[in-house]
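retry 2 of 3: previous attempt timed out while embedding molybdenum atom. Reduced batch size to 1 and resubmitted. Inputs unchanged:
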Amino acid sequence: MLKTTGFVGRRDFLKAGATFLTASSAALPATLTAKGASAAPKIPDNMLYPGVEDEAYGSPSPHEAGNVRKIFPQNEKSTLTASFTPLHTQKGIITPSGLHFGAHHSGVPEIDPEMHELFIHGMTDRPLKFTASDLMRYPLSGGINFLECGGNSAPQGYYPEAQPMPLQYLHGLVSGSEWIGVPVKLLLQEAGLNPKAKWVIAEGADAGFLARSIPLQKLLDDAIIALYQNGERLRPAQGYPMRLFLPGWEGNTSIKWLRRLEVTDRPAYTREESRHYSETLADGSIEGFSMYMGVKSVITHPSAGQVLPDKGYYQVNGLAWSGFGKISRVEVSDDGGKNWVPAELEGPVLNKSLTRFTLPWRWDGSPVRLQSRAFDEWDNVQPTHEAWKSRYFEGSRNHYNAIQTWYIDAQGTVSNVF
Ligand SMILES: Nc1nc2c(c(=O)[nH]1)N[C@H]1C(S)=C(S)[C@@H](COP(=O)(O)O)O[C@H]1N2
Ligand SMILES: [Mo]
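retry 2 succeeded.
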């Protein structure tokens, strides 16, 4: 077991058991050392009277009112709004629907589900149209997947200096949900595909006519017209009554409020794929149709915006994901990437899904550089910040997936550094 750093391997942790905890108990918060637990607990007031009635649609405890998204509002130059998921509070691979990140180029349209129709037309044997209730009659399928904006973590790629931002602003344009809907393949088969068809133009019913060209193959593979998110109908901001959902692909291609799938033999080069979501490489050439979201991870605790109250024992944990498939392993370092220790993958490790990782760690109180790097089942690995920068032209910001470094100073303040 590598012991140059403060990480405690899972096996060592279990073997040492109580010894480890006692040895470090000086650094444990009072609640963990169970001081005064020998006396029976006092009966609190809330046990003396029955509580209040439940609500028809449940809501979080008022004591958790601070657990909200941060909104980047529309301004005089742009109708884009973005809302950032509080990743630092999320424990688990599913983001509560009310905390799912949002990216809306022209606001959230108000749509009556009875009036909204999806048209499938173009190079098909017959055109088709569906309301959401028509789609409900098909067999539904889907899975637990992440959704990430191509512009997530943009400040890291864009600015020459690391910005003093919390985790939520730096990386909060990714979330996890269970998405359920109709496989697009079923609908395309029913429409009958012209053998020369290669692309499908997907268009949303918002004021910006947001549209993307999608290779037909993806739609025949694992794409769905999502109707449900986390067990209930989509929220308006997530595309109610129906959205395209493309597991693992750039968030922008999962067209919300989907109204049209036009089957063609060539891409349309829409605004979103020529201007907004194409990348300029270091040599000045343009990389278009960069659909897959790369392998990525971030330590969510400790993370920028947090302060470690004291030296001693902490459970380092975070989230990893890859648009190509399953996460195979995550390694962590507390010496700026000289030594790497394997973290434990916790809970289900699913295809194109957020995946939890964790490792016990003892902080000795000296300044450290804490990092994680994820690998996926295809052996893709996260690049360093420098390697990422050298691939792209100055000022690029999309598809940033480099290793995140959190600097913890002697006071325990965690901040973003390169
Ligand atoms: N019609 C339409 N679809 C859209 C968008 C939009 O503004 N309009 N935003 C896109 C972008 S940039 C992203 S990252 C995802 C965000 O989905 P979410 O808001 O459900 O998180 O939806 C995509 N689909
Ligand atoms: Mo996006």
